[in-house]
Each structure stands twice: as C-alpha cells, then as structure tokens.
Amino acid sequence: MSTNSERIFGGYVTRRLFRCDVARALEVSAAAELPPHTLMQRAGLAVARLALAVAPHARMIWVPCGPGNNGGDGFEAARHLKIWGKSPVVTCLGAAERLPADAAAAYAAAVQSGVTFADAVPAQYDLCMDALFGIGRLRAFDARCSEWIAQINTHTAPVIAVDVPSGLDADTGVAGPLHVKADVTVSLLTLKPGLFTADGRAACGDIWFDSLGVAEPIGACAELHAVAQIATRAYGAHNTHKGSYGDVAVVGGQQGMAGAALLAARAALHGGAGRVLVGLLDGAPFPLDFCQPELMLRSLPDLDFTAMTVVAGCGGGGAIHAHMEKILAQSRQLVLDADALNAIACDASLQNGLRNRRDRRECVTVLTPHPLEAARLLGMDTVEIQANRLEAACELAQKFSCTVVLKGSGSVIAAPGKLPRINASGNARLATAGTGDVLAGLIGARLATGDEGFSAACDAVYLHGKAADNWPGSLSATLTAHTLALSL
After folding, report:
1. C-alpha pair distances (Å), 331 with each of 312, 324, 344, 357, 383
2. Contact (Cβ atoms closer than 8 angstroms) between residue 113 and residue 83
3. Is the pLDDT of residue 29 over 60?
4. What is the per-residue pLDDT across 81-100, written as a single tens digit (0 to 9) for each?
5. How many helices (H) and strands (E) does the chain have?
6. Phi first, then psi: what are they for 276, rounded to 5°?
7. Which of 1, 25, 339, 357 has the highest CB neighbour count under 10 A?
C-alpha cells in the first residue's frame, strides 16, 4: 500500500512551519470546499496508509480515540484498516452522542464497517495509533486517559501519533508531565513548530507529513532548516591564499578554562577559516596548542579586532568583562558566547554597546546562548524560555538587533526581518562539555569565509548537529568536543 506522506529531514533546505491556529482555520475553510470527501476522511486514509507502510505485519491495532476531531481521524483510520483486513480495536474517551459532527459521522462509518469498539485496552496488540487529543488537549488528563497513555508508553508495540502526540503543545514543543511518546508522528495539513523543538523531537519520533491535498497557507511562523551548504575549497580556486578565507580571533579562556577557547579555535580552523588566532585571558599563555600547532596564540593587545571575525566568551569567566567594551566597539563580525553573554546580561552599558552595533552597517553580530544565558539576557528564568523557545529567540533578536542561536533540542535561529528557523539536526550526543564552544568557532569560520550572519548561523548549527548524527560507533559511543571539532 503506497502512502502520500513525506518523511521529514531528508533532502529539504527548508520546510515552512505553522502555528495550530492557522491549521484549524485552514481545516474549517478547506473542508467546506471539498465535498463529498472531508478533510477528516482524507486524514484517516493518510494515517491508515502510513500504518501499513511503517508496520506492514501488524494485525491487531489499538486505536485510542479522544472526544474531538483527533478521535474522528482515528475512527476513519480504523475503518480503512478494517476494510483492508486488519483487526483494529477502538477505545473511546467520552460518549458517541457528544462527538463533533464530523467525528460523529466518522464514528458511524466505522461502526457500519464492522470496526470493534471496546471499553478496555486489548491485552495484546501489534501497533497503537494515538488519536486521543492531538492539538486539542493541553490540560491535565483524567484517570482513564492517564492510564491509557501509561499503557501506550510502556507496551512494546510501536506507536503512531495522529497529527501530534497527545500531551505535546504543537506550537511550543512543551510536553506535559504525562504525554505520548511516539515512534512515528504523521503531521496533517501543516507542519507545526512544536514537533521540532524542546520536547517535540523526543515525543514525536520519526516525523512524516501529509498535506491532505490542501495548498499551503500563508503566514508561516518559522522554517525547518534541514540541509546546509557545506563550505568547500573549490578545486579550481588556485589563485587564493590563507587571507582569502578570513581570520578568526578567539578571545576567552581565563585561568583553568583555556580548553574552551582552544576548542572554539580548533573548530574555526577546521570549519574553513584561513588563519585562527587565540587571545587567552590567562595571565601566562603557553606558546602553542600542541594538539593544533596551526593556531596562533597571541596576547590580547596584539589582536586587531577590526580586521578579524571575533569569537568572544568561550571559557571567559569573569575576566572577559574587562574586554567587552573594546570587543563590541571594534569588531566588525562578532560571535558572542558563554561568559561574554553573561557579562552583557549584568551590565547595562554593555547592552547599549551591543545595541549600538546595529547603527554600523558593517557590523554582524551572532549570539549563541543556551536557555540559562538567554534567560539572563531577557530578565526571565529558564522555564519561561523553554516554555516558548521560538518566541524567546525572536525577542532576543529584536532586543539586540542581531542574529540569535537559542541552543537546545531543535535550536532556534532568529534575526530581525527574517523568518526564524528551527534546526533539524543533532542529538543527545552533543550534551557534553565543550560542544557549544565548537559551535561558536564554526559560526566564526562561516562569517570569516564570507557568509551572511543569519546564513552562517543556520548552516553552522546544522553542520554541527549533522556531525553528531553521523558520529561513528554505537548509540552509546561518546562524542567529545575535541573530536567533534576535528570532524567538521
């Protein structure tokens, strides 16, 4: 059985993402134009086809259905599976007489087709299709629904989520304490931003998309960044030299934290910069990096920030604060990470210096905060940042008139006047010390070699994550920041 659904993450530079209010409005307007086949019928068919594609040998299929239109999609899917010779068992939350009109019609059609309806979860099943709440339920579940979700998450059978795993906020990616953990999610009509950031990636599993034959609406809230342009040295570019690929200066590494600055510098070198210089904040810098002797260690007064792309803050500690005014004033292209961001967050004059860079046309600035650093810059806490990562990144970009990379699962890249991007690459292997320093250095290299700020950030974030996705060895193989930098 073929499917019209598309698997996400493969071969697309960008995919547009839409908030759920857009999807609801689209469903209402489109349904009126598609008699006699409603969108619910199309949705059920799409889900049933995907079930056959991803679990072709499943016979007994449990379809827990909610009291709204997501449940109606489940009824329709069960009806098709029954017609195709499968054995779907539907359990329902709520009474049939209280279903919305479309869902009630789907329920009646499923009953007429001979679908089995039960009050209890089947003892054994080969596949579960979560059609409980989708985008329609964000409050606490009652005892019965909680029991079903616990069963879904602990049973060995694979799980397909219809549109959105129940309990996941489709706009923000925030999952409730209890939510469905799907192996496959089929997003219907539009792709939603919450599937790709915060808790979304872990909750959704493998993500598929089916437009149900409806044209894409206007008013996207973000894009999914799924393929980057890899910076290469062209074979025919003979008449070039190291100066053709730009200089990067890394400023950071106070006493006991030199490794962070060196990791950023190594990443900049392997990311394509022509020369990389390092200004350590340690009072007694050593003469060279023995693991990467190509790096040029300099005292800070010897670095001409006006002529280089500057990466500041990696391992900077409290020592970076004294240099921030000069870095903000003199650097044309600047990546601010870690302690550089903390210094700005606690100093109003440095915040003004950062904002003033927007008045100099030649200046490009990229901030790379993790959620705690973003919270400090916005005067919030990390819970508020993580509650709406897309909104937080955009707010930071507007506040400081620069490109912002809000790191985390589904890193968000935002800039004034740009549709924000959610990065599609990366995994939990990046949750180790120093990988953020590597990202900062890679962004610096992309800027030094001529990329525009927003593009440099988007592509560097993607390639950084892709290196983790391609990491050799078993799933438990440790990724270290040093070897990550060498792999770029």
Report:
1. 10, 10, 16, 9, 33
2. yes
3. no
4. 999 999 999 999 989 999 99
5. 16, 19
6. -130, 125
7. 339
Residue-level length of the chain = 488
CATH of the domain at 167: 3.40.50.10260
Tell me whether residue 78 is in a domain: yes
Specify burial of residue 474 (Cβ count, 10 A radius: 0-12, 13-18, 19+). Answer: exposed
Residues 304 and 440 in one domain: yes
* Global confidence as pTM: 0.94
Work out the pLDDT band at 36, boundaries 50, 70, 90: very low
Average pLDDT, the chain: 91
CA distance 272 to 267: 9
What is the extent of the structural domain holding 292? Answer: 242-487
Q: What is the total count of domains within the chain?
A: 2
Residues 192 and 99 in one domain: yes
Q: Are residues 182 and 84 in the same domain?
A: yes
Helix 348-356 to helix 389-400 angle, to the nearest 10 degrees? 80
Q: How confident is the model at residue 436 (pLDDT cuts 50, 70, 90)?
A: very high
With H, G, I as helix, E, B as strand and everything else as coil, classify residue 293: coil
Average pLDDT on 2-13 reads: 70
* Whether 216 and 252 share a structural domain: no
- Per DSSP (E only), the strands in 51-141 are 60-65, 87-92, 116-118, 127-130
Tokens of residue 7, six digits:
């698997």
Closest Cα partner for 231 from 270, 190, 173, 174? 270
Read off the pLDDT of residues 180-212 as tens digits, 9 standing for 90 and up. 999 999 999 999 999 999 999 999 999 999 998
| Residue of 385, 376, 372, 329 lying closest to 352 (CA atoms) | 329
Decide if 19 contacts 221 (C-beta within 8 A).
yes
